[in-house]
From TrEMBL:
Protein name: DUF421 domain-containing protein
Domain of life: Bacteria
Location in or out of the cell: Cell membrane
Transmembrane regions listed in the UniProt entry: 32-50, 62-81, 87-105
InterPro entries named in the record: DUF421, UPF0702_alpha/beta_dom_sf
Keyword vocabulary terms for this entry: Cell membrane, Membrane, Transmembrane, Transmembrane helix
Family in the record: Belongs to the UPF0702 family.
Membrane topology designation: Multi-pass membrane protein
Domain YetF C-terminal: 111-180
Organism for this UniProt entry: Hymenobacter defluvii
Cross-referenced Gene3D superfamilies: bsu07140 like domains
Amino acid sequence: MEEQSLTQNMKKEEIQITDWQRILLGQAPFEFLLEVVVRTLIIYVVLVLAMRVLGKRMNAQLSVAELSVMIMLGGIVSVPMQVPNRGLLHGILVLSCMVGMYRGINWLAYRFRRVEQLTQGNLHIIVADGVLNLQAMHRVRLSRQQLFSYLRAAHMQQLGQVKRVYLEANGKFSIYPQEPPRPGLSLLPEKDPAIREAEPADHTVKVCQQCGHPEAADHKPWQCPHCGHQHWANGVCKL
């Protein structure tokens, strides 16, 4: 608040583009630079200890609760390191409160399933037996192109190769292959027609172009029983 009031009370003629001392040091004396180094070292040691207390999960892919803690840690440690009229104990106290709150939430999540779902998220089945779960994709705001790019990165060429795709609580995909593969919807991009035309088609199976649901080629009426879509394509075998 004091720094904001000082900035707001500065007169127009006091702001000079060549005032390098104000630009580089602000209104703090030059000696405060050495104090910043000392403050930074102390906060760094405290932060390392806090990260050890928070656990190994903070070094892995983060859940929503863990990411929130990480963002708040950045805001907590910046003020004690850089603001001359703020003591270190205030920052260390706030940091300790954050660590305690995080550990308390983890304890509640361990004891109560509902708390775990609210703070850690939940698993979603995105693909089951080569068919897209469009409702789950809508809930997690996952587009087909995003999912297809992940599957292509896992060396999948068509949905018939996929038995299950789980979207884990931490946002990571777990992919389990179908053995043996079945004819399914192509995962290759439509912008590469040359490679799509080279795909071996199974003319005995039609697949819904929206969700990948398979039906016999002579199946009628041509409305997908899974998603209601009416556009079909030949199933694709593994290349």
